[in-house]
Amino acid sequence: MPGSARLRDCEVLQKITSRQAEEKRLYGAICAAPAVTLLPWGLLKRKQTTCHPAFIDKISSFRAVKTNTQVSGELTTSRGPGTSFEFAICLVEQLFGEPVAREIGELLLMNPAGDDPRQEFNEVGWSLDRTPQVLIPIANGSEEIEVVTLIDILRRAKVNVVVASVEKSAQVLASSGTKIVADKLINATTDSIFDLIILPGGTAAAERLHKSKILKKLLKEQESAGRIFGAICSSPAILQKQGLIKDKKATAHPAVLDKLKDGVNDAQVVIDGKLITSQGLATAIQFALAIVSKLFGHPRARSVAEGLVYQYPRS
């Protein structure tokens, strides 16, 4: 919200979606949209439907269900950001079949290595007496899932996030063709001090981040000053190349894990002192929530997770 209400008020979209339903083609909605958008359009009639818990009471109790994702004929609905992977894979399966859905799920690390969501070594506190300042550098080829997930969750937790492009333009083209516009260019961050610098993944982007002299200088200063830094997916390999994770435990995407000196392969998120790393894509939510937990405590992380409709450990 209010995005779902704006979709509801778009007459062109209503006509397109209504025609889709009338012609028995697939259509769907997630989060608030089933109740706020599809329901007023009359597109939930005789359909079992799920949606975000905050809006489920708008749907007839006879038709409302609390599953993460619900398929009812041509309609597919889901509960929220925390169920979006499951929602997307469900749509892929309907469009292309189970083998393709399984393959995509594996690429996204839907079943990451190890059952342990988080391991911590050399535990130290991260709490601050001010609003945390976080830098997320991006480049052409960055994994948009990781970039957007990190920005979204940290901002929900009331962190001040600055997104900086290492390219000549503030706009980058992410790995799957999504255009992302940064807040500023990396050279505009040199006079700032960040409590945390996080590198998102993407093989091509990791190389571009590694070649940024400004980012290399910022990371070296971050490590020397004893401030927090981290990376996800293929980007922990950058930290390894730059000598920033000596004698530190870390994890990464399975494709680059063997490049780490002390790689951990049985945890989605690994924290070692002021270093935090994660496997990638489907572990991005767990990664971001682990950062929130370290900065603000577990209750804040759990509160953010509930808004996402994401199952987060109670302790």
From TrEMBL:
This is Protein DJ-1 homolog C isoform X2. It holds the Pfam family DJ-1_PfpI. The gene is LOC107027105. SUPFAM superfamilies: Class I glutamine amidotransferase-like. It comes from Solanum pennellii (Tomato). Residues 3-94, 133-293 form the DJ-1/PfpI domain. InterPro entries: Class_I_gatase-like, DJ-1, DJ-1/PfpI, Prot/Nucl_acid_deglycase.
